[in-house]
Amino acid sequence: MHTPTDFTPSHLAPNPLPGTTLVFAYCDTKLLVGGPEEAPIVPLLEQLRGAGVSGACHYLGELAGVPCVAMVLANDTPAPEGFRCAGLRTLFFRLPEPLLALGGRAFQVVEWDRTHRFCGRCGTPTRDRAEERAKECPACGYVAYPRMSPAMMALVTRGRELLLARSHRFPQATYSALAGFVEPGETIEDCVRREVREEVGIEVANVTYFASQSWPFPHSLMIAYTAEYAGGELKPDGSEIADVRWFSADALPKMPPSLSIARRLIDATAARLRQSGT
Ligand SMILES: [Zn+2]
């Protein structure tokens, strides 16, 4: 999930919006799509208008010259004939990656629209700002931007081994890198050291940036790091971590899907350890 190379973001919509505008319309957490199950299609504005579907729109920008909007549907909106509502995760590997990324972007904008209808400070209904993607309170002036929640992911290595954990939250027996949300006052590197200490009881050094990924479930920015084991015994925190182990780079367990940054982080680090011959 990242910005497609041929996408130009903007919050200022052309007026009027052309009928060929791509519409990422959300009913609750589900995206309205057409086409067959295996090859979903993002609808055009003229198709939705023809089907009588409408909702508040937030302009996203242009994908290869085609305008794109996020549309907020009422939660009880029925999908019109020929369309269905699909969870974004079920569209992985089915929707082309640029459309999936814009679907994730649209979801975060829709989620922000739905959860900032009233001022968090004084309770007055908010209104959209014309000059930027923000909602402001006409009574007290409070401004609310789309919410982003930075989270770190840390893959700890020890020689040729990788530390992977299975969370109570993960479905089945998938092992992955450690992860947690950044707290007020922390740098991401502080967060890596704290989360590793809290979740599995060890100390780490050489915390090194790997990559980041937008993760719209519902509004995370995952920032991935590698770190080296620096001391301590593994003591998994029973509430969050179901199991944690050192795995050889040559014998890794069942892992997250390849679209996730977790998988890229693990694959790249395991390949580096195997090549280093340690
Ligand atoms: Zn207010």
Summarize the structure.
This protein is of the alpha+beta class and 278 residues long. It has helices at 45-50, 97-115, 188-200, 261-276, and strands at residues 7-9, 22-27, 30-34, 56-63, 66-73, 83-87, 127-128, 135-136, 143-144, 149-158, 161-167, 178-181, 203-215, 220-231, 241-248. Strand 4 and strand 5 (66-73) form a beta hairpin.
Low-confidence stretches: none
Order of helices and strands: EEEHEEEHEEEEEEHEEEH
The largest beta-sheet arranges its strands as: 1-4-5-2-3-6
Distance between the termini: 33 Å
Description:
The structure is a single chain. The protein has helices at 45-50, 97-115, 188-200, 261-276, and strands at 7-9, 22-27, 30-34, 56-63, 66-73, 83-87, 127-128, 135-136, 143-144, 149-158, 161-167, 178-181, 203-215, 220-231, 241-248. The protein is an alpha+beta fold. The chain is globular and about 60 Å long. 19% of the residues lie in helices and 34% in strands. The site of zinc ion (ZN) has 8 residues, from loops. Zinc ion is lined by residues 119, 121-122, 124, 137, 139-140, 142.
List keywords for this structure.
4 helices; binds zinc ion; 34% strand; 6-stranded mixed beta sheet; alpha+beta; globular; 278 residues
